[in-house]
Amino acid sequence: MEQNNTHTVEPTPADLKRENKTLSARNAKLAQLLTASKRKLQDLQSQIDSLAEPASTYGVFLAFDRRGHDAEVFTSGRRMRLKVSPNLDRSQLQTGALVRLGDGSLVVEACGYPETGNTATLTERIGTDRALVSDHNGEEKVVQLATPIAATARAGDTLLIDPRAGVALEKIPKTEISSLSLEEVPDITYADIGGLDTQIEQIHDAVELPFAHPDLYKTYELQPPKGVLLYGPPGCGKTLIAKAVANSLASRVGDGAAPSWFLNVKGPELLNKFVGETERRIRLIFERARELASAGRPVIIFFDEMESIFRTRGSGVSSDMETTVVPQLLTEMDGVESLSNVIIIGATNREELIDPALLRPGRLDVKVRVERPNRNGARDIFTRYLRETVPLAAPAGELIDAAVEKLFTPRPYVELELSDGSREVLHYSDFISGAMISNVVDRAKKLAIKDQLAGVSDAGVTATHLHEAIEAEQDESEDLPNTANPDEWSRISGRQGEVVISARVLR
Ligand code: ATP
Fold first, then answer.
1. 51 CA to middle of ligand 1, Å?
2. Which residue owns the Cα nearest ligand 1 atom 19?
3. Quick one: which atom of ligand 1 is closest to the CA of 232?
4. What is the three-class DSSP state of 368?
5. Is 105 in the pocket of ligand 1 (CB under 6 A)?
């Protein structure tokens, strides 16, 4: 009989312990794995949830409601009152701010300010936080000013606006505002201007008397002129006169301590090919002038080269732009009435081209011709530049006499053939201007310095220096008319009746 030798070996306690250890290690690992999987599942779940969430919308914050709890927000074309997330710093909610709206249209985040929109020009401020603006079609609208610009926006600024929300968001810097070249009036006085005493007196009577004695004008029921037109050849002192008027007016107003303002507008700079843009710039100039004048200081608006922009309407010279630009200026000029501190001075050397409507009574009705200087005028201008305070080799009077003699010595410049067959020679002396005299003196001074540095002489400016300077100026001057166009010469020579057929420059 076969004996059953197999017998089970009882596990020893040590074995059991070992097994227990292995199992609990495995168990722990499984538990870890489970937790990790659970976390992963949760992650995936939340991702799925967020994919199912509605997309965020944005709006423009306008204000807090009256109780200061909820936000008034312009979103999806409507003004809505919305709850604000308690996690949001409420100080970030400022008028005009872009806000993100979360679930249930809760305001959850402030995201700066909108960066796109329309542009409009600020016409007038209303109270502390609103303004009247007009767009490029001239349509007017009242908007709220966004907090960052509420304190600084002013008439004439170009603003970025959200027209639907009715908020102006940002000031857009535009070059032409600075190119209006606003100057505090320069220290030019009548005493700096030579040879134009009669013209200065005319201006004085026309502009300064009404300024100094407004009551008398009222008693006599006289309207002070709004402006003056200075006309005449280039470089003869029109700009100087305008600046001196501004200066003189300033000393008449108040204690004279505050200078007046001078808005120097160059006609061609105002021109812009875009429809309505030139008119906008004109409006801007007058807005700025009114704003400045309201502080009590006189403002001169000086339009240089006026004919380039305010030509007779229908003359067809330039794409008939003047049909809208001239009326814009007329409207603005007629509106200056309310402010006696604004004076308009126009300058041109083609007065015949300016639209007559601008020259009617109540507009630029005072016309002053600023002529080329004669001998006495030239002498007078020389005294402004050749002073005893600089080194002179002879008394100033003698040097000036010598220079004037030389300047007026006939030296042919151009020969004109006129329609009646006659010929006429114009001389350099027919084109003398204040600008030329000022240049001559500068050139003579430079020659004197050169001589002194070269050790030739340190006597100062001599008559020879002045003679040389005059010749150089005549040879090189850019102010001299240099054209072969007979029509131009008809105008320049002032021979209105005779048509110039040809012109030959005798150089
Ligand atoms: P434009 O038509 O070219 O603008 P304008 O008549 O306005 O010329 P201004 O700008 O006044 O001429 O003159 C140019 C410069 O010439 C002045 O800055 C000044 O230095 C000098 N000048 C001209 N005329 C006179 C004058 N009568 N007295 C003193 N300086 C003068």
1. 75
2. 435
3. 6
4. strand
5. no
Q: Do 118 and 168 meet the contact criterion of CB atoms below 8 Å apart?
A: no
Q: Are 435 and 232 in contact (CB under 8 A)?
A: no
Give 126-132's long-range contacts (Cβ < 8 A, gap of 24+): 129/95, 131/159, 131/168
Give nearest CA residue, ligand 1 atom 17: 435
Q: Which is nearest to 416 in space by CA: 361, 357, 484?
A: 484
Which of 236, 245, 381 to mutate for ligand 1's pocket (most ligand atoms within 8 Å of CB)? 236
What is the residue-wise DSSP string for 47-60? HHHHHHSPPPEEEE
Distance 386 CA to ligand 1 centre (A): 16
The span from the CA of 110 to the CA of 98, in Å, is 6
Q: Is the CB of 200 under 6 A from ligand 1?
A: no
CA distance 109 to 335: 47
- Compute the distance from residue 202 Cα to the ligand 1 centre, in Å: 18
Q: How far is the CA of 407 from the centre of ligand 1 (A)?
A: 17
130, 141 Cβ separation under 8 angstroms: no
Could you give the domains of the chain?
57-110 (2.40.50.140), 118-174 (2.40.50.140), 190-369 (3.40.50.300), 375-505 (no CATH)
Instruction: Show pLDDT as tens, one digit a residue, over the chain (507 residues).
Output: 444 555 667 888 888 999 999 999 999 999 999 999 999 999 988 887 776 666 789 999 999 998 889 999 999 999 999 999 988 999 999 999 999 998 888 999 999 999 998 988 888 889 899 999 988 777 889 999 999 999 988 877 889 999 999 999 999 876 554 555 666 666 889 999 999 999 999 998 888 888 778 889 889 988 778 889 999 988 999 999 988 888 888 776 655 556 678 888 887 777 765 666 778 778 888 888 887 787 777 888 999 888 887 877 766 555 566 677 788 888 888 776 655 678 899 999 888 888 888 888 878 888 999 989 999 999 999 999 999 999 999 999 999 999 999 999 998 888 888 888 888 888 888 889 999 999 999 999 999 999 999 988 888 999 999 999 999 998 887 767 777 777 777 767 655 566 788 888 876
- Measured CA to CA, the distance from residue 255 to residue 251 in angstroms comes to 7
The alpha carbon of 7 and the centre of ligand 1 are apart by a number of angstroms equal to 133
Centre of ligand 1 from the C-alpha of residue 9, in Å? 128
Which residue owns the Cα nearest ligand 1 atom 16? 435
| Segment (H or E) for 451 | helix 434-453
Please state the pTM of the whole predicted model. 0.68
